[in-house]
Every structure is written in structure tokens, then in C-alpha cells.
């Protein structure tokens, strides 16, 4: 009996949903995609699949098994295809990997959000300084994580792993800070040479075909995120 492809409910403008698409691109996992319009209230049929109304959601056709939350969906896809090498096998490195994802998603990215979307000019210098501080901390963590496998460019040396799958989509939105804040310039290798390891990692992830090809058009992202500036 032929089993149908799983269905990936997604939105091409959502960085969290993009994690699943990067995992799909890296593994060759075959899915059917259904786009969910995030600008509208979710329809009842989708709330039956995901009561939270979020994307992504991955649903099997043969047993109606549903997986929610972007990190879990990406990990599930990666574990179905161990030959892709996305899963870090060493327990210590896996712990480091999880820590790096946690730190970036909970420290660096929120600090960037405040810079990208604030209109409070009085707090701008403070917010920008905090963003750079979080980048410095993350740079230090990256350097330590690389010790066991050699230098970059990815989180653990030359191998692109699940940590990179999960963080590439977040990095792909950082350009928005300059678009929403006229005159603001993101840190660069020239302005912040102490972040050399971070920039090596950033550049490698943004150039990775699975990340670049699944990132929505920049102008589309700019127009979609204007509403967050306040």
C-alpha cells in the first residue's frame, strides 16, 4: 500500500516555519505543503490540526500523527534521515548544540527584535549596546563549541547540523533592522572584529543553499514586518 506524503502546514514568511523547510532541503524528505495565511484568523479546520494556530505543523497521512513546534518538527525530520548527518551524536556536543540554540533564540534574537522594531529613540543606544553584548557572548560560546571539532564555519566545524538548521532562518531576518531603522547599521566584521567567529558562522549559514533558497523575498519580508515597528 502506498502511503501519501506528510503534509507540512507552513508560511513562507515565518522564520520558525522556515526551520522545517531547511530540514526538508537538507534531508530530501518529501512533503506536501499547505500555506497558512498568518494575516487572517485561523480557520476552524486548521485549529483542529493545531489548536494554537501556529506554523509549522507536520501531519502524517497514514495515521494522522501531528507534530507541532518548529524545533520539534525540524528534529523529527532530521532523525528520520540520519544519513544527512544533522543530528550531533556526541552527548556533550549535543548539549552544547542545544545550549547555543537556546542562547541565540532567547538572548540574541530578542535583543535584535528590540533594535529592529523600536521607535523609542531615547533607548536606542542602550538597545544597540545590549544587542552587541549578546553577540559577544554568543561569539564566545561559538568559539568554545568549535574546540572539539576544529574551527568553523558552522556551529561544529565543517558539518552543518541541526543547530544551524534552527538558527539560519532567524539570522536571515537580521537585515530587517537596517530596513526598518533608517541610518542604523548592523555590526560588521570591520566595526566589530572581536566577533570574527560569529561573522564566519553567520556568513556560512546565510550562504547555505538550504537557508538561502527557503528565505522569502526580502521586500516581501519588509512589507510583512512593518506592522511590528512601534
Number of strands: 4
Number of alpha- plus pi-helical segments = 10
Structural class: alpha+beta
Order of helices and strands: EHEHEEHHHHHHHH
Report the sheet with the most strands, covering strand number, pairing sense and barrel closure: 4 strands, mixed
What are the segments in which pLDDT stays under 50 over at least 5 consecutive residues? none
Q: What percentage of amino acids are in beta strands?
A: 5-15%
Features:
single chain; 230 residues; alpha+beta; four-stranded mixed sheet; 10 helices; 4 strands; Thioredoxin-like_sf; Glutathione_S-Trfase_N; Glutathione-S-Trfase_C-like; Glutathione S-transferase
Q: What would you note in describing this structure?
A:
By secondary structure, the chain is of the alpha+beta class. The protein starts with 6 loop residues before the first strand and ends in a 5-residue tail after the last helix. It is globular, with a radius of gyration of 18 Å. Helix content is 52%, strand content 6%. It is built from ten helices and four strands; from the N terminus they run βαβαββαααααααα. InterPro entries: Glutathione-S-Trfase_C-like, Glutathione-S-Trfase_C_sf, Glutathione_S-Trfase, Glutathione_S-Trfase_N, GST_Omega/HSP26, Thioredoxin-like_sf. This is Glutathione S-transferase. It holds the Pfam family GST_N_3.
Describe the structure concisely.
Helices cover 52% and strands 6% of the residues. The chain has helices at residues 15-27, 44-49, 70-80, 91-117, 124-146, 162-171, 176-180, 196-207, 209-212, 218-225, and strands at residues 7-10, 32-35, 57-59, 66-68. The protein is α+β, with helices and mostly antiparallel strands and 230 residues long.
Amino acid at each position: 500500500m502506498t502511503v501519501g506524503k506528510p503534509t507540512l502546514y507552513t508560511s513562507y514568511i515565518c522564520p520558525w516555519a522556515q526551520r522545517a523547510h531547511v530540514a526538508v532541503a537538507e534531508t530530501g524528505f518529501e512533503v506536501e505543503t499547505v500555506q497558512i495565511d498568518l494575516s487572517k484568523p485561523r480557520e476552524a479546520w486548521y485549529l483542529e490540526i493545531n489548536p494554537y494556530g501556529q506554523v509549522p505543523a507536520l501531519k502524517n497521512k497514514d495515521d494522522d500523527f501531528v507534530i507541532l513546534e518548529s524545533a520539534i518538527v525540524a528534529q523529527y525530520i532530521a532523525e528520520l534521515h540520519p544519513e544527512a548527518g544533522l543530528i550531533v551524536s556526541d552527548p556533550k556536543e549535543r548539549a552544547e548544540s542545544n545550549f547555543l540554540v537556546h542562547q541565540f533564540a532567547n538572548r540574541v534574537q530578542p535583543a535584535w527584535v528590540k533594535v529592529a522594531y523600536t521607535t523609542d529613540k531615547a533607548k536606542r543606544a542602550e538597545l544597540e549596546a545590549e544587542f552587541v553584548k549578546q553577540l559577544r557572548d554568543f561569539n564566545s560560546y561559538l568559539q568554545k563549541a568549535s574546540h572539539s571539532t576544529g574551527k568553523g564555519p558552522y556551529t561544529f566545524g565543517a558539518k552543518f547540523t541541526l543547530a544551524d538548521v534552527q538558527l539560519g532562518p532567524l539570522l536571515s531576518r537580521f537585515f530587517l533592522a537596517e530596513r526598518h531603522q533608517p541610518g542604523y547599521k548592523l555590526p560588521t566584521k570591520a566595526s566589530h572584529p572581536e566577533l570574527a567567529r560569529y561573522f564566519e558562522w553567520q556568513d556560512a549559514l546565510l550562504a547555505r543553499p538550504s537557508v538561502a533558497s527557503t528565505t522569502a523575498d526580502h521586500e516581501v519580508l519588509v512589507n510583512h514586518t512593518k506592522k511590528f515597528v512601534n
